[in-house]
């Protein structure tokens, strides 16, 4: 490897070293806060402020148990998992057939419908809060997880449909025609031809929407409400912060409960997402 | 093929449904709080990491065990008012709200979101149990008692005597002494006074310093109208504030600190002096509390109106508000509220969480020495001054905090502060 780098022209070597250095700096920018979170969750305030980056003197889990007790975090995590999973499932159930139809559409109607989906980007989520609240109240679903499970996919559909449609457009029509000649129905073409090829696109949609659903705060706060049996982790977590005298070790421990699922899901889906980005780059 | 797919789809749906439905149904803890007969719902800020949250949870659990009645707890922190208000719009607000009287909540009684409890005070036998001054403070301009005053707060000044000793100084009682103490502390690399310059805690100290130059009656007029320039005393107060700031009394970059970071600075010995409310004093670690003495803000060395160091004294804390929904369940709420004002519950809050209560009581905190010190301060030690929250119009609150944050910055002159302060009232 060293010999290969040495064999490169000077300009390429400088480029390689620069990009490598920048990559490490970027990695450090991500790792240092994560490290800070982890070590702080084992410390008290004095240790956090005296020596922020030092390892904790003990690996005592009391901050975690306190966070769990004070904010009912297990319930909150369970509610976040339920809400996020069902919302993701519903998003895919709606976005996949819609994207499939739009990708195959050749007429003007398809373009109009695609344009309508893209219009969804123009609605600021904050502006939709009050009408959404009225809708929830009118449907009798105010202060329920159910309404948020229906709402989140609605907010995610524009992006999901745009991503999946562009992905599906790259699939050669010949594959679909061959399957049709074998007697496959449209649903079977979607399931057995498009879906396997679209896995990287689906992973991208899942990852982006997972981040958005899991981290949602304002809508769950207002629409799901303060009942500990229903509230999500993003609504529960702020109760660990007080006006004066916050125990930052406990707050960091609680925050890790929200960060770890994000990290896990990203680790699981990142390869597929990179593949999707790469295939777009190559095809582009 | 079509047959096969649909059969598989049906099978998957059946398995999925078979797993998910019992999962959702069997998780009793995930079932929304019951609103059934005999139950009430309580939306409380006494939750999470707030002092007294665990005591409240224990009190509710004991009440439920004793009476067999359900009390569903809904919990929020500072976002409780907005959640309660949107719930009210949908007619799904909790029967009882336990929240402080500040900002948005000041308008609840007038807007009909909560009912006045004036009549219930005698019917439920609570008048003699609550400190009369608290009842007065919680009564609005139209004579309506907004809520039952539950907890209260004092705002003494805490001095880390260990750090003062290291700097070779004593607790200051006048502004000249305070400036000398700040110099001595700075020369030892210790921060003098820390305060949340960017939020309401900095605003409170600013208004407290102003009260060193005006009578309480004049302060009432100034804070309700915002016309600082029409009060010579208020202008002198602002000039005094600027003098203290320019003398380095406050820690560096004080305009960036919050009520939370001020206490953290104090608890970690980065600063020696902090004006903090009594509920925050309950969260000072025992090891730190050993070297802390509680007193008041030093009086102006010249031109002031106070005889002794000042302490903001307030009966404002958490109140027990009854909503429109709750008005339908007064028979269920009555025993619960009476229980909250019982001797046993009052003692549990004072002894178990260091809370100051509006209940008439002789009990003094034992495990929270700073709270106990603060509650022992008499008019011979300090001069009480007002918490002006109830006088400042709701819409002025946030603009005023921006002004006081600007005042803690090093470049703002007294004239500029007075001008910006008056402009913050223009929105009202």
TrEMBL record, chain A:
CDD domains per UniProt: TM_PBP2 (cd06261)
Zinc found in the keyword field: no
Topology relative to the membrane: Multi-pass membrane protein
Subcellular location: Cell membrane
Annotated keywords: Cell membrane, Membrane, Transmembrane, Transmembrane helix, Transport
Domain ABC transmembrane type-1 positions: 77-269
Entry superkingdom: Bacteria
Entries under Pfam families matching the protein: BPD_transp_1 (PF00528)
Keyword Methyltransferase recorded: no
Protein name: Transporter
Similarity-based family: Belongs to the binding-protein-dependent transport system permease family.
TM segment ranges: 21-39, 81-103, 115-141, 147-172, 193-214, 248-269
PROSITE patterns reported in the protein's UniProt record: ABC_TM1
Organism lineage string: Bacteria, Bacillati, Actinomycetota, Actinomycetes, Micrococcales
Chief location bin: membrane
Organism listed in the record: Isoptericola cucumis
Gene3D superfamilies assigned: MetI-like
């Amino acid at each position: 490897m060293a010999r290969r780098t040495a064999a490169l022209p000077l300009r390429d070597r400088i480029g390689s070293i620069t990009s490598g250095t920048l990559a490490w700096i970027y990695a450090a920018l991500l790792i240092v806060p994560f490290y800070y979170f982890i070590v702080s969750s084992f410390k008290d305030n004095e240790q956090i402020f005296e020596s922020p980056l030092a390892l904790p003197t003990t690996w005592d889990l009391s901050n975690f148990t306190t966070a769990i007790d004070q904010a009912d975090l297990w319930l909150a995590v369970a509610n976040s998992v339920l809400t996020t999973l069902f919302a993701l499932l519903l998003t895919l159930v709606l976005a996949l057939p819609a994207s499939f139809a739009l990708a195959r559409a050749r007429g003007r109607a398809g373009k109009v419908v695609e344009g309508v989906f893209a219009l969804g980007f123009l609605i600021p989520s904050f502006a939709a809060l009050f009408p959404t609240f009225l809708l929830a109240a009118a449907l009798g679903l105010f202060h329920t997880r159910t309404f948020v499970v229906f709402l989140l996919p609605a907010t995610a559909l524009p992006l999901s449909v745009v991503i999946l449609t562009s992905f599906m457009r790259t699939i050669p029509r010949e594959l679909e025609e061959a399957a049709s000649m074998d007697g496959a129905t449209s649903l079977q073409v979607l399931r057995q031809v498009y879906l396997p090829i679209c896995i990287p696109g689906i992973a991208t949609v899942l990852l982006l929407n997972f981040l958005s659903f899991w981290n949602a705060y304002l809508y769950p706060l207002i629409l799901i409400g303060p009942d500990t049996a229903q509230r999500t982790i993003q609504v529960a977590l702020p109760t660990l912060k007080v006006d004066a005298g916050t125990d930052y070790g406990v707050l960091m421990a609680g925050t890790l409960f929200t960060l770890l699922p994000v990290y896990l899901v990203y680790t699981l889906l990142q390869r597929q997402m990179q593949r999707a980005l790469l295939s777009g780059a190559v095809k582009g | 093929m079509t047959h096969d797919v649909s059969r598989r789809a049906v099978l998957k749906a059946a398995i999925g449904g078979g797993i998910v439905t019992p999962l959702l149904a069997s998780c009793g803890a995930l079932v929304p709080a019951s609103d059934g007969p005999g139950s009430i719902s309580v939306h409380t800020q006494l939750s999470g990491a707030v002092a007294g949250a665990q005591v409240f949870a224990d009190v509710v659990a004991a009440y439920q065990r004793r009476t067999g009645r359900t009390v569903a707890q809904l919990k929020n922190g500072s976002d409780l008012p907005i959640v309660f208000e949107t719930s009210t719009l949908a007619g799904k607000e909790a029967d009882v709200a336990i929240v402080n009287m500040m900002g948005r909540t000041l308008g609840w009684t007038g807007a009909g979101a909560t009912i006045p409890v004036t009549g219930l005070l005698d019917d439920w036998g609570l008048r003699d149990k609550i400190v009369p001054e608290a009842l007065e403070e919680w009564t609005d301009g139209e004579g309506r008692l907004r809520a039952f005053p539950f907890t209260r707060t004092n705002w003494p000044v805490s001095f880390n005597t260990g750090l003062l000793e290291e700097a070779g100084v004593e607790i200051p009682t006048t502004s000249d002494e305070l400036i000398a103490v700040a110099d001595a502390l700075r020369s030892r690399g210790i921060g003098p006074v820390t305060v949340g310059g960017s939020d309401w805690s900095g605003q409170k100290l600013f208004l407290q310093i102003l009260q060193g130059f005006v009578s309480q009656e004049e302060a009432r007029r100034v804070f309700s109208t915002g016309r600082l320039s029409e009060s010579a005393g208020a202008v002198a107060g602002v000039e005094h504030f600027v003098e203290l700031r320019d003398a380095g009394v406050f820690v560096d970059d004080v305009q960036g600190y919050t009520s939370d970071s001020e206490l953290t600075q104090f608890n970690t010995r980065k600063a020696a002096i902090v004006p903090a409310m009594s509920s925050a004093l309950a969260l000072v670690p025992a090891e730190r509390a050993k070297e802390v003495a509680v007193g008041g803000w030093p009086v102006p060395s010249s031109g002031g109106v106070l005889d002794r160091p000042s302490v903001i004294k307030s009966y404002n804390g958490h109140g027990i508000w009854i909503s429109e929904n709750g008005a339908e369940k007064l028979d269920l709420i009555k025993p619960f509220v009476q229980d909250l004002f019982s001797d046993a519950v009052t003692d549990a809050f004072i002894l178990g969480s260091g809370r100051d209560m509006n209940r008439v009581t002789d009990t003094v905190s034992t495990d929270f020495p700073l709270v106990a010190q603060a509650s022992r301060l008499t008019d011979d030690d300090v001069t009480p001054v007002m918490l002006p929250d109830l006088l400042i119009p709701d819409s002025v609150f946030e603009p005023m905090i921006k002004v006081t944050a600007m005042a803690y910055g090093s470049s703002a002159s007294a004239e500029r502060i007075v001008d910006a302060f008056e402009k913050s009232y223009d929105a009202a």
